[in-house]
């Protein structure tokens, strides 16, 4: 047993000595697999690939990602994939993604519709006010212009004696001018024709012409009113019965006659101005007219009402 132990110890010692000799031999022998040393002045090749890959707007240079724009972008900007310099949006400036609002209740939807309708009404009201203001501006700008007026007139009169009645219709040219915002003057002509009759004469006809001089107050709102003076001349034509002496004695016949009378009168005239520039005038007048006395006529005083409509430009 003691001999076996001794042999084992000798064997292990031998193996240790053999390993030491092998290591020394390996260290002493020059390596044949190593690469030859680099020559003087030659640099080792550098790795040029970038990992991970550079993002858009950057290129890989010497193993680093650098902006692709050349020349480089100034401060506060960055190079984009299109190779343009764009401002850098800070985190504070970038709009935060809004969370979707919670669903509205029926009461909230009804209230929202009422608010929308009120906003629409207010917008329409404001638009009407702006249009009205523009119309008022145009009307005031045109009010003091000298304007020519064309219109038509209708007159109905009644005499004080013998139930005389007059009806006429005619053309009324004239002028109108506001020398102040609320004071003006108009002169209207009236060329008319019509009919008349009384207890003596039937189915008479008339032709006439008049001038109406009308100072007025206004427009007060849209209305004008003032005195009116009338001067004119009327030709009355009618048929009358005449008695003549013939071969058989007295004979009754009819004969036509014409009588021209001067007409003067005074009254008042009012009107309504319509349109954005007060171009349309609808007016009425009441007059007391006095005509020349004539042995043939009792129509020397009458009350007359006139209606007219005209357009000024």
Report on the structure:
With 313 residues, this protein is α+β, with helices and mostly antiparallel strands. Among the domains are: 58-87, no CATH class; 142-312, Porin. Helices cover 21% and strands 48% of the residues. It is built from two helices and twelve strands; from the N terminus they run H-E-E-E-E-H-E-E-E-E-E-E-E-E. The protein has helices at 2-28, 106-143; strands at 58-61, 64-67, 77-79, 85-87, 147-159, 165-180, 183-197, 204-220, 223-246, 249-274, 280-291, 301-312. An eight-stranded antiparallel barrel has the order 5-6-7-8-9-10-11-12. Strands 1-2 form a two-stranded antiparallel ribbon. The protein has a two-stranded antiparallel sheet with strand order 3-4. The longest helix has 38 residues, at 106-143.
Overview features:
8-stranded antiparallel barrel; alpha+beta; Porin; 2 helices; single chain; two-stranded antiparallel ribbon; 313 residues
Question: How many strands, what sense, and barrel or not for the largest sheet?
Answer: 8 strands, antiparallel, barrel
Structural class: alpha+beta
Which value, in Å, is the CA radius of gyration?
A: 59 Å
State the order of secondary-structure elements, H for helix, E for strand.
Answer: HEEEEHEEEEEEEE
Strand order of the largest sheet: 5-6-7-8-9-10-11-12
């Amino acid at each position: 047993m003691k001999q076996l132990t001794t042999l084992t110890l000798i064997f292990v010692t031998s193996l240790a000595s053999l390993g030491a000799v092998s290591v020394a031999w390996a260290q002493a022998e020059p390596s044949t697999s190593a690469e030859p040393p680099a020559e003087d002045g030659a640099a080792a090749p550098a790795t040029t690939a970038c990992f991970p890959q550079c993002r858009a707007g950057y290129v890989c240079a010497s193993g680093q990602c650098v902006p692709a724009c050349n020349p480089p972008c100034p401060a506060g900007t960055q190079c984009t994939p299109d190779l343009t310099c764009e401002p850098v949006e800070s985190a504070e400036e970038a709009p935060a993604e809004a969370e979707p609002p919670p669903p509205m209740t029926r009461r909230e939807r009804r209230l929202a519709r009422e608010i929308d309708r009120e906003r629409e009404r207010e917008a329409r009201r404001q638009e009407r006010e702006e249009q009205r203001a523009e119309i008022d501006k145009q009307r005031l700008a045109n009010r003091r212009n000298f304007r020519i007026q064309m219109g038509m007139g209708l007159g109905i009169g009644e005499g004080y004696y013998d139930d005389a009645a007059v009806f006429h219709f005619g053309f009324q040219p004239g002028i109108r001018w506001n020398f102040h915002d609320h004071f003006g003057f108009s002169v209207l002509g009236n060329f008319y024709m019509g009919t008349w009759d009384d207890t003596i004469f039937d189915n008479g006809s008339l032709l006439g012409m008049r001038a109406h001089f009308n100072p007025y107050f206004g427009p007060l709102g849209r209305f004008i009113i003032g005195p009116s003076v009338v001067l004119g001349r009327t030709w009355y034509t009618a048929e009358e019965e005449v008695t003549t002496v013939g071969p058989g004695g007295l004979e009754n016949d009819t004969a036509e006659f014409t009588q021209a009378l001067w007409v003067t009168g005074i009254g008042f005239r009012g009107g309504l101005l319509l349109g954005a520039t007060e171009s349309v005038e609808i007016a009425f007048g009441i007059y007391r007219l006095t005509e020349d006395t004539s042995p043939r006529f009792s129509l020397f005083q009458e009350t007359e009402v006139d209606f007219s409509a005209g357009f000024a430009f």
